[in-house]
Every structure is written in structure tokens, then in C-alpha cells.
Design a protein that fits this description.
Number of domains: 2
Helix content: 25-40%
CATH topology of the largest domain: D-Maltodextrin-Binding Protein, domain 2
CATH superfamily of the largest domain: Periplasmic binding protein-like II
CATH class of the largest domain: Alpha Beta
CATH architecture of the largest domain: 3-Layer(aba) Sandwich
Structural class: alpha+beta
Number of helices: 16
Number of strands: 19
Radius of gyration: 25 Å
Distance between the termini: 60 Å
Largest sheet: 11 strands, mixed
Oligomer: single chain
């Protein structure tokens, strides 16, 4: 397999559900990840969209749905608050990968798959079933290519009544591949042929990859968008909806309103009634967290997903006696401690011992994860014992559970390291971002932990722009800490392994740690075997092949202590349960609006 293929990165586009492992700087302060950063410029002034895409003027429920369960009444409005305003409504242009764009887009976009908020599994949306090798929807051909077949649901239509067809898939593919459009083309660029039909679509990839599961996460209607200026005409309005609502109004700086899509094709699985139940949803933009909480307390807004600071969680939980429903879940962003194996670690700490496995094991036993989550997250989350725990808990093996907090055990490993290195003392220099309160607190906790085991320890924290710039890109640290943003399912799990490829960032890879790369201080049987596993993972779509390989690969990373997973960040959502029913928090990038079609007013 060529090195170019193996080094490709998959960046997250929320609407495509083509998620990536990206360095997540987001926290409870001013450093925020690429895909969740608040817009810094006003939305572009655009031309009017074609008249065919105007939202229907309606708030009445369809006559065919008047038999709704008495507990699920039609009508009313829900108000959702967020601290960001979208820079655009178009997922395929710059700014379209912001989290708020997807949060609102869940009300009118639709695609092949979505993430179930109960199981966190990928489930079909526009198609009858997700294609797999087992059901014949994904076929590995004799020439080594992979053909994927979609059967589009007969009932799936756009909000103007036009059937959703294979031509819409084809048009979406061609739009993404437009060289003048600055959107992520990864994996799509490996499609070698397509075949659209009235209610089918097939495509063939140059070689097998499980990332096919994430393609076509949101479709573009050919009949409405073809011939328009795609990059400018769809920033402040939206094309015909395939979701439960249609775009209605954007009052800049204040709110976006969506109203019922009378032609929505989905029905309630429990009652058989046509969805959605609500007449409309208003997304209010409230920049300050404190103001969001105050608006929620005053019942001016119904649903919120505020930044997960412990004081915010505790303030919301105090409202549960008044009818608030608060869900605090482990999210897709996971923090980890890690070692630098490249040459520039010596510029940070000329006495770095990262090449020594006993030293790294000593550090693993030095870290008191329980104390960390108690101090930073008020004990509301369990420490992490593996990165598979954040993507596919069902196959996780808790590979890092072997490293308990053990002062005596850590000292034994450090003594062995000193003997092997021929030194009398060990030195550790820790670097992370200085403008993230949780990480600053972490660095302070480390002072006593390393002091207890007799290791000379120093904090060298940096501004996030420097740390996530030169420091991360060039390997200029000794012991470091940051987060990765992942996604559930097999594709999300696979992307964990690209983080440890044998190509460093300078060569087009994602291995910022430089473990096993050409300039690494550690290249051994373990790193070589891991490279073989990674190649095999990138060449198969068979779960029976992928699962044991993923488990073996994670075990290698744990046994070699390349990184030390710490905890997954909390994701919090709150809703007034005596006002809004049907809400279910989703801790993935799909967010808490993933099932907005199921929401209904309890108080009608």
C-alpha cells in the first residue's frame, strides 16, 4: 500500500459525518478546536436563493397526523440556545464545518447515516440499510476495489415534494469534487466510478476502506441547486429540506428560525404518526455561558448544551427539582498524556528519558487519574483506560488498566530506568496550553505526583497558539498533554491508529509523537508490528478482521506507553422536561439536536 494513501487525513465535516481525529484545543477557556471555533467575522452577504427554495408558509400539522399519541401533541415551538452564531448555513464552504452549523443543520439536512443518541451506533437515514459486507451492500471486487450500493427509501422526498434520487447523490459527489470549492475531498477523491438510479446509487473506491461508512452524510438537491452559484447563494438561506424542518428566518445576531416541513417523510417509530411534532424551532444566539444559564433558569429557552464546566453542571443539576432534565455524558474529546520521541524533545529537556520503557512505565504508575478527574471534573466521569473506550466501548479491552496509581511501583520502574540509562536522577519537563484552566490545574497536580516518586519535574506551559503551532508540529516538547476529537463506530476507531503511523507530520502523517517514525529514538519490533497492523486496518472492511487488529494495536500502544489516556471530556445538555418531551442528549458530534423531529411540547 503506498505511503500517500496511508497518510491521508480525514477532517471532520459535521454535516458529512466524515469525522477526523483533530487536535482538540477546546476547553473551558479561550482555546477552541477548528471545528467548534466561534466565527470571528460576520456572515457573508449573499445573493438571494432561487424562488423554488423558499420555505413553505405553514405551521399547521398535516391532516394525516392528527392521530398523534395524546402524550405527543402537535404544535408549539422549542427554543434552543447556543453561544455561537453560524458564519454560513452551507456545510461545504469555509466555516461550514463549525459545530453550530451542524447543530442547526440537523433540522433540515439528511444523508445516508446518522448517529443514534441511545446506542451511539451509525444508523440509516435516507437509505433502507447501511451497506456492509455481510448484507452485500459493500463488495470487495476481484481487482481490489470496493463497490458500495445504496437503496434510497421510496418515501424520501425533498420539502418541495421532489423524490430524493441517485441524481442527488451524484450531484453531491460532483459538488464536493469541484476543484474551485474549498471542501474536504478525502475518500471522495478515491471514487473511481459512480452509477446513479431513480432510487439507487452505487460507487466504487480504488481500494477497500471502512471510511466508506461516513460518505454522503448530507445530500444536496440537484434540481434546486444546479445552475446556482453554490459558494455564495446558500450562505444565508437553505435549499429544499430533506429533514423535519425548513429554513424560515435568520435575524443576524439574534436567532435562526425553522418551521415544519409538511413533506417530511419520516414517521414516529412508536406511533406511526408523521413527524415532526413541533410547529417551529428557534435557535437563539447568546454569547456568554452565564447568560445562557440565566435564560434557561428564567425559562426563556427550553434546551441548552453549555460548555461542560463543573460549576455549570452543578448549577443546572440544582434545577432538576424544578423540572430540568440534565444529562452529563462522556463526549468524543479525550485528553491524554504523551511522550515525544523525536530529536527536538532534547531542546525542551536535554535530559529527557523518553526512549526508556521503564521510565515511561514509571510515569504511567505516577499519574493518579482518580485525583485528576475528582479535581478537574468533580468526579463526574471515570478515568479512561483506553482510546477504544471513546469510540467502540463494545470492543474495548481497557489496555491501560495495567497501570494503577502506585508510588512504590513507579519508584521501582524509575530505579530500573536510571540503571539502564546510567544516570543518578531523572528529569521531566511538562508542556501544555497555559490558557486552559483544566490543563493548568493538571500541571499543578503533577508537581506533587512527580515529587512523591523522586523525579525532578518542571512545568513549561505555553499559549495555545504556540503550543498547537510550532510546538506540536515540530515535536518541541518532552512530556505533553492535549486532546483528540474522535467519533464513534469503526471509522472513528480506525482513525485512532493513524495517530501513530510511521510518517511524521513533516512527511504528511499525523504522528506528532514521532514514535516509530524515521527520526524516532524508538524504532523496534513493537513499532514495526504496529505499522503492519495499521496497513491491514486500512485495507479491510470486514469487522471480523478489523476488531482483533484494533485490539492488538491498542495493546501495543499501551504496553509501550506511547500515550496515557486520562479522561473523556464531559458533554452536558439540559432541557425543561415539563415543557419539551422526546429530547435525548447525544454526546457525539451529532449533538443534542440529532432527533429534533421527535421533540414535542409537553405543556400544550
Amino acid at each position: 500500500m503506498n505511503r500517500l494513501w496511508r497518510s491521508r487525513k480525514v477532517l471532520w465535516l459535521a454535516v458529512l459525518l466524515a469525522f477526523a481525529m483533530i487536535a482538540a484545543a477546546c476547553g473551558d477557556s479561550d482555546d477552541s478546536a477548528e471545528t467548534t471555533a466561534a466565527p470571528t467575522t460576520a456572515a457573508t452577504e449573499t445573493t438571494a436563493a432561487p424562488e423554488t427554495t423558499a420555505a413553505p408558509e405553514t405551521t399547521a400539522a398535516p391532516e394525516t397526523t392528527t392521530t398523534a399519541d395524546p402524550g405527543k401533541q402537535y404544535g408549539g415551538e422549542a427554543v434552543v440556545a447556543d453561544d455561537q452564531e453560524p458564519p454560513t448555513l452551507n456545510w461545504a464552504v469555509p466555516g461550514g464545518d463549525n459545530a453550530i452549523v451542524s447543530l442547526i443543520g440537523q433540522s433540515y439536512w439528511a444523508g445516508v447515516q446518522e448517529i443514534d443518541g441511545f446506542t451511539l451506533d451509525l444508523i440509516p437515514e435516507l437509505v433502507t440499510e447501511l451497506p456492509t459486507v455481510a448484507n452485500g451492500g459493500a463488495v470487495v471486487n476481484e481487482d481490489g476495489t470496493l463497490t458500495v450500493n445504496y437503496q434510497i427509501k421510496d418515501e424520501a422526498v425533498w420539502s418541495d415534494g421532489t423524490p430524493i434520487s441517485g441524481d442527488d447523490f451524484q450531484f453531491t459527489y460532483e459538488t464536493i469534487m469541484d476543484p474551485d470549492l474549498a471542501t474536504t475531498k478525502t475518500t471522495y477523491e478515491d471514487i473511481v466510478s459512480t452509477e446513479p438510479g431513480p432510487k439507487t446509487f452505487s460507487y466504487t473506491l480504488a481500494q477497500p476502506t471502512a471510511l466508506y461508512e461516513l460518505l454522503f452524510g448530507s445530500l444536496i438537491p440537484k434540481h434546486a441547486v444546479e445552475g446556482s452559484d453554490f459558494a455564495t447563494d446558500w450562505n444565508e438561506t437553505m435549499w429544499p429540506s430533506a429533514g423535519p424542518f425548513v429554513f424560515d428566518t435568520w435575524q443576524k445576531g439574534e436567532f435562526i428560525k425553522v418551521v415544519r416541513n409538511d413533506n417530511y417523510w419520516k414517521t414516529d417509530a412508536e406511533t406511526g404518526d408523521q413527524l415532526p411534532y413541533l410547529d417551529s424551532v428557534v435557535f437563539r444566539f447568546i454569547p456568554e455561558t452565564e447568560s445562557i444559564i440565566n435564560a434557561f433558569k428564567a425559562r426563556e429557552v427550553d434546551v441548552i448544551q453549555p460548555p461542560p464546566a463543573t460549576e455549570t453542571i452543578e448549577a443546572l443539576q440544582a434545577l432538576e427539582a424544578e423540572g430540568a432534565v440534565v444529562e452529563v455524558l462522556s463526549g468524543p474529546v479525550w485528553e491524554h498524556l504523551n511522550f515525544q520521541f523525536g530529536p527536538r524533545r532534547l531542546e525542551r529537556n536535554e535530559l529527557s528519558s523518553n526512549e526508556n520503557l521503564n521510565y515511561r512505565k514509571g510515569v504511567a504508575h505516577t499519574i493518579n487519574k482518580d485525583l485528576i478527574v475528582d479535581e478537574i471534573l468533580a468526579g463526574q466521569v471515570e478515568p479512561l483506560d483506553g482510546f477504544l473506550n471513546t469510540t467502540q466501548p463494545s470492543i474495548a479491552t481497557d489496555a491501560w488498566a495495567q497501570y494503577d496509581y502506585n508510588v512504590e511501583g513507579a519508584i521501582e520502574y524509575f530505579e530500573a530506568a536510571k540503571a539502564e540509562l546510567g544516570v543518578d536522577e531523572l528529569y521531566t519537563v511538562f508542556s501544555t496550553t497555559s490558557n486552559n484552566d483544566a490543563r493548568v490545574k493538571l500541571s499543578e497536580l503533577f508537581v506533587n505526583m512527580f515529587g512523591d516518586v523522586g523525579v525532578n519535574y518542571e512545568n513549561q506551559l505555553e499559549d495555545s497558539q504556540l503550543f498547537f503551532g510550532e510546538t506540536l508540529e515540530t515535536g518541541l516538547w518532552d512530556l505533553g498533554e492535549w486532546a483528540w476529537l474522535g467519533s464513534p463506530g469503526t471509522p472513528g476507531s480506525l482513525q485512532n491508529y493513524d495517530l501513530f503511523d510511521d510518517l511524521n507530520p513533516d512527511e504528511g502523517g499525523q504522528n506528532y509523537y514521532r514514535w516509530g517514525t524515521s527520526d524516532s529514538v524508538v524504532i523496534d519490533e513493537s513499532s514495526v508490528r504496529f505499522a503492519e497492523i495499521r496497513d491491514a486496518l486500512n485495507a479491510s472492511v470486514d469487522p471480523d478482521v478489523l476488531t482483533p487488529l484494533m485490539q492488538e494495536g491498542e495493546q501495543i500502544i499501551a504496553d509501550q506507553v506511547v500515550i496515557i489516556p486520562l479522561y473523556a471530556r464531559l458533554v452536558t445538555a439540559a432541557v425543561w422536561g415539563d415543557e419539551i418531551g422526546g429530547h435525548k442528549h447525544n454526546p457525539t458530534q451529532a449533538a443534542h439536536t440529532w432527533n429534533i423531529e421527535d421533540w414535542y411540547r409537553v405543556d400544550l
